[in-house]
Known about the structure:
six-stranded antiparallel β-sheet; 14 strands; 171 residues; 47% strand; mainly beta; CATH 2.40.50
Amino acid sequence: MWMVPLAGATLERLSMDDLIAKSTAIVRGTVTDSWAAYTGSVIYTHYKLQVAETLKGASRNWVEIVVTGGTVNGVHQNFTGSPTFNKGDEFVFFLWTSKAGLTQIMGLTQGLFALPRDGSSDPAATRAPTRELMLDPATAHPVKDAALSMRLSDLRSLIAKKLATGNGGGA
């Protein structure tokens, strides 16, 4: 088995306003399937998401996202900071689709809010702090990320407000 280690990421710190504005779609979804494949020389793990709610973008029943890294034919690529998912995991995903058609999570884990499987009608949407090097976009100085947590209803309201004021247009 070949292991190809790849360097860590340097991320621009994204505010909630940035995440909303730069995302081409924001969905609440559950991971239903995964597989890995090459795109050029990079292995991507593809995840199929069953969409329960569309908060930004065209409404759809499912979406396919890609995350760098995975294993294909015994070759493993690992990208520091790339999240992994299990079937049944539910999140609010802030997504961006490239011109090549690959849909990815904004800012690695910055655009990923976990939802607990507790049956709550208004669960806490939480984002763990990223461990990757993060730079403040205004100063280019390193900054530490912080965890975020808010009720799903508050996250919905924040997104709707930004979209209604015209501050949530896609990138």
